Amino acid sequence: MIKVGDTLPSTTLFEYSEVEGEGCSIGPNAVDVAKATAGKTIALFALPGAFTPTCSAQHVPGYVANAEAFKAAGVDEIWCLSVNDAFVMGAWARDQKTAGKVRMLGDGSADFAKAAGLTLDLTAKGLGLRSNRYSMLVKNGVVASLNVEGPGKFEVSDAATLLAQAKAV
């Protein structure tokens, strides 16, 4: 499993853009993790699935509500990762009103989750291989703090915990 001091896996995530801008076309756009994190501080959180109860009711809304506080603490971007495709993440972004606050990134084949050693097998519940629930502060592509949840928990990957860590760094 990835740990503090490790570099993020060199993988590609996908993001759905509602409108054209900054050289991005509408539709799924590849996000090279190494390039996208270079020279930036990223508040990254991951969860098992879009539109799921805890993820939609608590996890994402906490980061959306605290977006300005993260920026004030020196965070350049907030990323939400889930093992869903970019189209689902785009629909969830509209539903959660994340525009301009949280980048909703699809890890459709779980490449990032697998490379980071942060997978969650929910096959018995009909969901297949997913991402574990966690948060991390990333500085220039390197993990500065990591908060991994226990099975079925939502106690340490919340926005308040990661915001406190961002303020302390």
From TrEMBL:
Domain Thioredoxin per the UniProt entry, residue ranges: 2-168
E.C. number: 1.11.1.27
Catalysed transformations (reactions): a hydroperoxide + 2 glutathione = an alcohol + glutathione disulfide + H2O
Enzyme class: oxidoreductase
Domain of life where this protein originates: Bacteria
Record flagged with keyword Oxidoreductase: yes
Keywords: Antioxidant, Oxidoreductase, Peroxidase, Redox-active center
Coiled-coil spans in chain: none
The keyword Oxidoreductase is annotated on this UniProt entry: yes
Function: Thiol-specific peroxidase that catalyzes the reduction of hydrogen peroxide and organic hydroperoxides to water and alcohols, respectively. Plays a role in cell protection against oxidative stress by detoxifying peroxides.
Family: Belongs to the peroxiredoxin family. Prx5 subfamily.
Name of the protein this chain belongs to: Glutathione-dependent peroxiredoxin
Species for this entry: Rhodoferax ferrireducens
